[in-house]
Design brief:
Blueprint (H helix, E strand, L loop, with lengths): L8 E5 L7 H12 L5 E3 L16 E2 L9 H4 L7 H6 L8 E6 L13 E6 L4 H4 L1 H7 L4 H21 L5 E4 L2 H11 L4 E2 L19 E4 L8 H11 L3 E4 L5 H7 L4 E5 L3 H10 L2 E4 L7 H8 L4 E4 L4 H4 L6 E4 L4 H12 L5 H8 L4 H12 L9
Parallel strand pairs: 1-2, 1-4, 2-3, 4-5, 5-6, 6-7, 8-9, 8-11, 9-10, 11-12, 12-13
């Protein structure tokens, strides 16, 4: 029997160093439990959601590591130690948000641990795909593969003491089961529906909003629009930014990071949203649909659950720029019902998310999905 006091909850997340969907979920956890401290490995207030500035954020020893913002990705072997050594013994409930190692926190008898899992760590369980997309080669590739063996052991062992794993989609629920042989409760991530209005505007440009890292496949969109000679705007930042700028022709603009209000404005004015990678969920594609904008998406991952084919978007079947370009042309020859597109997106509201999380915490929702 667990006795949970609402003022005795700890929130845990891998790192607060980017504007990602996982970090947005944590910001909603903070909104639900504003008194709960947030434990994390590193925190850069100016590189993630501003909501955390009102939270009590407790960082690890990694925060003071020299050049940590540049090398954090390559210190992946340190994260298990970081989370395993966090002292969370005084809390009734540990609410973790994990795509890496935050799920591995130490739990004592009488505590409840609920983990919102965005994905089992990609670099551990989809290693070849991850290393290829991140362009890791040579001795570094061998080193990563060698270190991954004990890390997988630690990761699988750490899931044993999690009371409930929440998967962010059916896609991820299946991956969790195949990875850990553990069932999960499926709760879609939240989108803030009031920030995005149905828009009748279209200024003829297409839009990508993404972190600019390898597996997001923004390069595919740039290549497709280079060949289409149609206007594409890319909003986002990351290690791929300079390469994408060098690839882009005059009709493709790489804007870099932009604040929320600018992103919402561009979503309202674009012709359609381009979603070129395989995502676990993909919040921004849902935000585009809230504006009534159709989506061109790769047929895989979370897009299969958020995009309704020929009603709210069009799929392409392989990571091929020509197939993406063909899908854009097909989209232009399709009549779209903007109200229907928005109605589909409203299934993922923030209010619904909060209600479902509270039911799980209260023990009222325990249905699991393989």
């Amino acid at each position: 029997m667990y006795m949970i006091r609402k003022n005795n909850i700890a929130i845990v997340h891998d790192f607060l160093s980017q504007y990602g969907g996982a970090e947005y979920v944590v910001s909603v956890f903070h909104e639900m439990f504003p008194e709960a401290p947030i434990y994390t490995s590193i925190y850069f207030p100016d590189k993630t959601w501003p909501a955390f500035k009102t939270a009590k954020v407790i960082t690890s020893f990694m925060q003071k590591t020299p050049y940590i913002s540049k090398i954090q990705k390559w210190l992946f072997f340190v994260y298990p130690i970081v989370f395993r050594t966090m002292d969370l013994s005084s809390y009734d409930l540990i609410l973790s948000s994990s795509a890496n190692f935050a799920s591995g926190v130490k739990v004592k008898k009488g505590q409840k641990h609920i983990c919102y899992m965005h994905n089992p760590p990609r670099f551990l369980y989809r290693e070849e795909e991850y290393l290829k997309k991140e362009k890791v080669a040579g001795l570094l590739r061998l080193l990563v593969s060698f270190i991954s063996v004990p890390l997988r052991f630690f990761d699988k062992r750490s899931t044993v003491k999690i009371d409930f794993i929440i998967a962010n989609s059916k896609n991820v629920a299946k991956r969790i089961y195949s990875t850990y042989a553990k069932e999960s409760i499926m709760v879609y991530p939240p989108v803030e529906e009031d920030r995005f209005c149905l828009s009748e505007k279209s200024e003829g440009f297409y839009l990508v909003v993404s972190r600019l890292i390898g597996y997001k496949r923004v390069d595919l969109a740039v290549e497709a629009f280079n060949n289409l000679n149609k206007r594409l705007i890319v909003i986002g930042d990351g290690p791929e930014k300079q390469r994408l700028k060098e690839m882009a022709r005059n009709n493709v603009e790489i804007m870099g990071w932009q604040p929320d209000e600018v992103v919402a404005d561009y979503l309202g004015r674009c012709e359609a949203f381009i979603f070129p990678g395989e995502e676990d969920f993909g919040i921004v594609s849902v935000e585009a649909q809230l504006c009534g904008k159709p989506v061109v998406a790769y047929r895989g991952g979370g897009a299969l659950e958020t995009v309704v084919e020929n009603e709210t978007g069009i799929f392409f079947d392989e990571f091929d720029s020509k197939l993406l370009a063909d899908a854009v042309l097909a989209l232009e020859n399709t009549k779209w019902n903007k109200k229907k597109i928005r109605e589909n997106a409203l299934r993922f509201s923030k209010k619904r998310f909060k209600e479902e999380i509270n039911k799980i915490i209260a023990g009222e929702q325990t249905d699991v999905k393989k």
